[in-house]
Design brief:
By secondary structure, this protein is α/β, with parallel strands linked by helices. It is 40% helix and 18% strand. The protein contains six helices and seven strands; from the N terminus they run E-H-E-E-H-E-H-E-H-H-E-H-E. The chain has helices at 21-32, 70-82, 108-136, 148-151, 165-185, 205-217; strands at residues 12-16, 36-42, 58-63, 87-90, 139-146, 190-197, 227-230. Helix 3 packs parallel to helix 5 (165-185).
């Protein structure tokens, strides 16, 4: 993978959604750049990561949910091992999520599942990691959402990065959460930015890897609460 941004030797990066397609691209690129990895997944997707290898140190934890008490234990273990958490990247299982979510299946159960795995997953991981960064007065956070979060799209209700009511609603909520948090933490040395993925992002994985590394590198330190679109 042709990366052009930074050397992350010795830095510690936590990735939620590590077995997702974007998560694996980001983990590979950060490993190649020398980062120590703390990889987190939900149990239902953890098997996707089996057999993956990274060139640098990595630690892996699968959780029943991001609200699992084991999350804090895992993060505390990373801090004990590497002294601090430098970066947090929150990804989601956009490509692995069940595609058979048609418009007529707008059940409360479906909304609850997507909200728990995606929006609340991001929130719980942030709530666990951010205090570590704030205590150090330094850290960088990147959220991954979909372009439909601020563009909207008329579709058949499938989770495909081409749009659905659930996808638009949750992505919009995450963008709002991201920008609100950014306003609070930037004066304390922590930046929060996002990347919005469109349906064709897999055509150029280096664009995703380089965008994440741009946000994490500090070369765009003037930006906080901003979003890079990759379509």
């Amino acid at each position: 993978m042709n990366l052009e941004i930074s050397d992350f030797q010795g830095k510690t990066c936590v990735i939620y959604g590590a077995a997702s397609n974007p998560g694996r691209i980001i983990a590979e690129s950060m490993s190649e750049a020398g980062a120590n990895l703390g990889l987190i997944d939900l149990d239902k997707y953890s098997g996707v990561l089996q057999g993956n290898t990274h060139s640098g140190p990595f630690n892996y934890k699968a959780l029943s949910s991001a609200n699992d008490a084991e999350l804090e234990v895992f993060i505390d273990g990373l801090v004990a091992k590497y002294k601090k958490i430098d970066y947090l990247v929150c990804s989601f299982y956009f490509d692995q999520y069940p595609k058979a979510l048609k418009g007529e299946n707008m059940s409360l159960e479906l909304w609850d599942e997507m909200m728990s795995d995606w929006m609340l997953g991001y929130f719980h991981v942030l709530r666990t990691v951010a205090p570590k960064m704030l205590a150090e007065g330094n850290g960088r956070i990147v959220y991954l959402v979909t372009t439909t979060g601020y563009l909207g799209f008329s579709s058949q209700g499938e989770v495909s990065l081409a749009g659905s009511l659930q996808e638009c609603g949750l992505a919009s909520g995450i963008i709002g959460m991201m920008t609100s948090i950014a306003r609070d933490v930037i004066p304390k040395g922590v930046s929060v930015n996002g990347i919005a993925l469109g349906p064709n992002y897999k055509a150029d994985p280096a664009a995703l890897a380089n965008s994440v590394q741009l946000w994490l590198s500090g070369k765009a330190e003037y930006a906080c609460g901003d979003i890079i679109k990759i379509d």
